[in-house]
Amino acid sequence: MFNIEEELKKLPDKPGVYIMHGEQDEIIYVGKAVVLKNRVRQYFQSSRNKGPKIEQMVTHIRRFEYIITDSELEALVLENNLIKEHRPKYNTMLKDDKTYPFMKVTVQEAYPRLLFTREMKKDKAKYFGPYTSSEAVKNVMELVRKVYRVRSCARVLPRDIGKERPCLYHQMKQCDAPCQGLISQEAYEKKMEQVLRFLNGDAKETLSELEEKMQKASEEMRFEEAAQYRDLIGDIRRIQERQKITAYGEEDRDIIALAMDDQENLQEIDAVVQVFFMREGRIIGRDHFFLRVAKGDSPSTVLSSFLKQFYAGTPLIPKEIMLPEEIEDAALIEEWLSSRRKQKVHLAVPKRGQKEKLVELARENAQMVLDKDRERIKREEGRTIGAVHEIEGWLGLHDLIRMEAYDISNISGFASVGSMVVYEKGKPKRSDYRKFKLKWVEGPNDYASMEEVLTRRFTHDSGGEFDSFARMPDLILMDGGRGQVNICLGVLAKLGLDIPVCGMVKDDHHRTRGLYYNNVEIPINTTGEGFHLITRIQDEAHRFAIEFHRSLRGKAQVHSLLDDIPGIGETRRKALIRRFLSIDKIRDASLEELEQTESMNARSARQVYDFFHKVSEEGQ
């Protein structure tokens, strides 16, 4: 048994990280301390004003543990890693982990490639970015391929030159096909030098060359080709166009501001942080981040938590970060960021002038995003919680949270399957969806199939509180009327379960017209949110069952005669199909032709040859 009072006496007089555990031994909070003994004790001292979040958290602490570090900076790094790993309930958390795209040029290779990536590695490649828009990166990459015709494939060159035919990009005139030896390594390297200059912002040479080609094509009345060059020139100029928002100085900096929600009735979105990315004096992009915060958290605390989580996950750290106010641990965070950047990083709180206006602009944008999201939540609650309340009114139920719906799919009894979909508070809970392959029922018997699915669902041994079968539904929705409802009620009665069951009754056009409940068909308002929710649940159960059935049919039908040949695996099957294109041509091939096929040897060729000739003899 963990005795908190006794364990507090054992705390060391050293820096480190402390980890609070709740009733289920889950991690509910992670913090760092300069002196563990002093910091952890504060949580359990009644005389201290801890704030509403900490007051609530302390009531749930059942034990704590700690990790000693050599310095407060090490504690900060470890704290951040543990928060990201465990996402504790009482820590301020980023609601979405975003990664930003880069363009990567593999200059370490003989024939460098241009690639899209979301992570930087120590692999001697050149990286350009990060960018805030993946669409913009892909547009630039497409432009580079059109203009410079460099490769992006995974072939290893020069080893694989001539082994396979050129890819689609060569046919589209977006690659010079070094894989076929159609361009020398020296000529390809010159092209790549142009690419690197272009990505670094110098496109004068490229524009001049394209303008010459456009002029020549026009003079030779090749107007379609001239128009293509014209469009490429326009694309390059648009990409190079300088931003209208500028600031003095050429340093890289991020401008960060915060908007916090002060409405008691909203819990989903508590705060929004807006970040402006300024590079070489130009705002090149912006992004916003939703955070989960507790009532009583100060803006300083929220911003401090955001900085640690955000800059732990982004590879590019600017020289200066501008903030709306002073934050907790400012000196420590500066030291940590400087160690990551390998150069001094400064946290600044501008008080006047253009910098202060930029921070205010970021704050206004954060507030705008928060206000928009508040309206979105209200609309979403109408579609979900409001719709559930409407269904409760129709059926005379209360506290309706979890609804489960079932459906059966088969074709003339072939591969019958069942689906279970789950909605909680009016939203799909896809992690709790389940599929059933029918085991006990043969042939097209929907009632018997549904009885099997329901029996297996409600007699399934739960794997614990996180198993989707562990939680009983507050309402069961059946895709049909009286017959399906009675099947479900019969199963529940045998198992001694008391759960409301409602049928979704369709009209002659297969549209829901009412609900069958307690032996009565209840008419419903077909224009309200409750009706739309019922329809969504019905469609989702049907879609999920059909999707599962389709996948089983596909697996049953995707079978080649080559699968039956012993010793012929996927690689050799693909090689045979690539060369001969059809089973008939493989059957007619000579032993010598089979041996000459890629990936084949004398033994495997003999297996294929003997298999087809044995099959032919047996068929005669």
Description:
The structure is a single chain. The chain is globular and about 80 Å long. It has helices at residues 4-9, 36-42, 52-58, 72-86, 134-148, 168-171, 185-199, 204-219, 223-240, 299-313, 330-341, 353-383, 385-395, 446-458, 482-495, 529-557, 570-580, 583-588, 591-595, 602-619, and strands at residues 16-21, 27-33, 63-68, 93-94, 102-105, 114-117, 126-128, 253-260, 271-279, 282-292, 320-322, 346-348, 402-411, 414-424, 427-428, 434-437, 475-478, 501-506, 512-517, 520-523. With 620 residues, it is α+β, with helices and mostly antiparallel strands. The chain folds into five domains: 4-90, GIY-YIG endonuclease (3-Layer(aba) Sandwich); 102-240, no CATH class; 253-380, Ribonuclease H-like superfamily/Ribonuclease H (Nucleotidyltransferase, domain 5, 2-Layer Sandwich), CATH 3.30.420.10; 388-555, Nucleotidyltransferase, domain 5 (2-Layer Sandwich); 561-619, Orthogonal Bundle (DNA polymerase, domain 1), CATH 1.10.150. The longest helix has 31 residues, at 353-383. The protein contains 20 helices and 20 strands.
